[in-house]
Amino acid sequence: MPLELVTIRCLRDNYAYLIHGNGETALIDAPAAAPIQSALDERDWRLDHILLTHHHDDHIQDVPELRRAYPGVRVTGNRADAERLPPLDQATGPCERVTICGESAEVIDVSGHTIGHVAFHFPQSKLAFTADSLMALGCGRLFEGDAAMMWGSLSRLNALPAETLICSGHDYCAGNGAFALSVDPQNNALRARLAGVEGGAPCAPATLATERATNPFLRVAALRDRLHMSDATDAEVFARLRRMKDDF
User: Between the chain's N and C termini, which has fewer beta carbons within 10 Å?
Assistant: First the structure.
């Protein structure tokens, strides 16, 4: 059976996620304990695992509080970034697998936003937790990596099956959507998605197929000519789009 997924709004615009299966519950990132505990209590679930994608405070800051509330919870993260993460019970890394809630998950290097950022892909349940790498209608800012690194990360994620549900770390739909429309104004799929968001529909999670059709950072081939970059590589077009978004 696929894992049960719960999306939790935290802080101003963060998402955290619970997955449940095989009698266990796991949390992906820990922005704020209160809404996470409320979601757990509502379902009478105990927290068994915390998976951390990267070291930024708005993704890890309430790990200590959740450890106190759920003794025995196991924290998993990238060993290469362990010095910047809360203490890990299970250290892992890209191209490795971890078993969570009875399902094997692939750990994917998605560095760019930060160095050492990882995503967790659960192929059986068709879920990918991408945090601040591939995001709804966008991608994360390049705080530590460069454009070539982020393009490599997005390319790895874009190679996942189209039906994979992309569970990103923030609701930046208004800003991301406005930028996407500015560079891709004739995209009917994008307009339809933004109309749904304006009507109150959530922007994330969304399938990879939806992101491929609407996210400008996955549509570099379609936008190359519009940007007058017909001879540029995909990575160069991506870099231009990322700079444009930074200045938008």
Answer: N
Length of the chain in terms of residues written: 248
Rounded to two decimals, the pTM is 0.96
Query: Pairing mode, if any, of strands 127-131 and 165-168?
Result: parallel
Q: pLDDT tens string for the chain (248 positions)?
A: 899 999 999 999 999 999 999 999 999 999 999 999 999 999 999 999 999 999 999 999 999 999 999 999 999 999 999 999 999 999 999 999 999 999 999 999 999 999 999 999 999 999 999 999 999 999 999 999 999 999 999 999 999 999 999 999 999 998 999 999 999 999 999 999 999 888 777 789 999 999 999 999 999 999 999 999 999 999 999 999 999 999 99
